[in-house]
Amino acid sequence: MTQRLTTSAGCPIADDNNSISAGRRGPLTFDNFQLFEKLAHFNRERIPERVVHARGTGAYGSFTLSRSLSEYTRADFLQHLGDETEVFVRFSTVGGGQDSSDYARDPRGFAVKFYTREGNFDVVGNNTPVFFLNDPQKFPDFVHSQKKNPRTNLPDAARMYEFWANHPQSLHQMTILMSDRGIPLSYRHMNGYSSHTLGFWNEQGERYWVKFHFKTDQGIRTVTNDEAQSLPAHGAQQDLVEAIDFGEFPSWTVKVQILSEEQARSFPVNPFDLTKVWPHKLAPLIEIGKLTLNRNVDNYFAETEQATFAPSNLVPGISASPDKMLQARLLAYQDAHRYRVGVNHNQLAVNAPRCPVNHYQSDGSSTGIQNGEVNYYPNDQRDLPRPDPSVQAPPLPLLGDAWVGTFSQDDEDYFSQAGELFRLMNPEQQGQLFDNIGGGLAQATPSAQERMLDFLNRADPNYAQGVLQAMRQHVPAANTA
Ligand code: HEM
């Protein structure tokens, strides 16, 4: 039987094409409540887009464990070989709005929500192992400098390079972004990284530090600036949706790097500095399983747009680390979700844990689920939820006094790893790097150019030389800064 069209309150609708009017050519009447509902709902179809990572694509799949990590962590989904955990993954670009292109030279977000039996664990990472910053104070300034010029509303390379020239800590990530790896051909053809160091803790209360790597099984494939120009804005979205619809399920081999607390203390780089990688020779990659995407969303807005990933979504056995950027992200994302989706965002199907959720929180906008009449704790009801002290993470040793003075970055080495990466590139890759930086840096102010060339020189004199030559081939565009 054909289903009847109804209002959102379920009332059957007789006519959805014509409004009620006073006579054929007359004005509308006030009993057009069906029309009013339709227009009012239409006005509210948009929620704020993500302030960064606005443009993205999501899909469901699973993570299958191929190596037990019980010696390092009590995380429920990392114990038994063959254990399968449902996941939702959202890939994104960072700087552009929802209507920008999938082919911007920009890092790609790689956010994974593991629906474990002990709650959701989110790895909200990127396709790069490092980031531009290691102190969250600079994040809004950084994002402002990379987005459009607020006056012209146009992309503005001068602002980007002015920021980078003031922040040597950005050099490593800038080198990756400007390299031949800067524009992935599709979301299937790139790696993902937690980038941050997270904590593992086991049944004995011993703590380890860990980084997650998701290595694409499709192989890395990238495009040049020129190739990117000829690709459709929605190309990466289409590639993922069609691959899954056609049964070509993309997968990633999941690996971890692990350090004991003792190893971390004598590690040659600060293991909590997000601008640095852990050399694989010192912390080898350990394969732990496979991530596969095999189901598209039924509704883009309901699922992908309303998905709320949070670095604070941790499970027993996995903790945060002292990484300053991560610490700030523990606050920033939940705050963003309350604003963007609402206080009860975790009740939406895409975000809802697949395990029982028991708490004494009440009410709030769009509450769909409420617990019983006791919404306070402690209470005298034996069968109601109570805390479980066994899931308490071990205490985090502090390495020094809390310091309210200025945190100086002057004694940090932000050049060696950028130089090492540069020397790993073949001449053709180095040529692309020179050209990509040269084109943008040519538009920056002379003082920004000078400082940037100094940073490049400290990474490797050939790096600076190559960029300088490339700059000379670019006629500076009008500098709007
Ligand atoms: C202090 C530093 C940072 C702050 C304050 C910050 C803040 C934010 C905010 C507010 C959003 C939008 C969230 C939403 O509306 O749902 C976001 C999205 C995102 N961020 Fe960050 N971010 C920071 C650093 C990073 C870093 C270092 C990474 C990667 C290693 C990262 C990866 C992502 C990803 C992947 C998303 C999109 C998640 C999704 O698909 O919904 N962010 N960030």
Helix content: 25-40%
Count of individual helical segments: 13
**How is the quaternary structure best described?**
single chain
The CATH topology of the largest domain corresponds to Catalase HpII,  Chain A, domain 1
Which architecture name of the largest domain does CATH use? Beta Barrel
Number of strands: 10
Q: Given the C-alpha coordinates, what overall shape results?
A: globular
Q: What is the rounded Rg?
A: 25 Å
Structural class by sheet pairing and helices:
alpha+beta
Question: What is the average of the pLDDT values?
Answer: 95
Q: What order do the helices and strands follow?
A: HEEEEHHHEEEHHEHEHEHHHHH
The main β sheet shows up as: 10 strands, antiparallel
Tell me the β content: 15-25%
Low-pLDDT residue intervals, each spanning 5 or more residues:
477-481
Looking at CATH, the homologous superfamily of the largest domain is: Catalase core domain
The small-molecule ligands in this entry are: protoporphyrin IX containing FE
CATH class of the largest domain: Mainly Beta
Count of distinct structural domains: 2
Distance between the termini: 64 Å
Show the helix and strand layout:
Elements: H1 33-43, E1 56-65, E2 84-93, E3 108-116, E4 119-126, H2 139-146, H3 157-166, H4 171-178, E5 192-193, E6 198-201, E7 207-216, H5 225-229, H6 235-245, E8 251-260, H7 261-265, E9 286-296, H8 300-305, E10 318-319, H9 324-340, H10 416-424, H11 427-441, H12 446-459, H13 461-472
Antiparallel strand pairs: 1-2, 1-9, 2-3, 3-4, 5-7, 6-7, 6-10, 7-8, 8-9
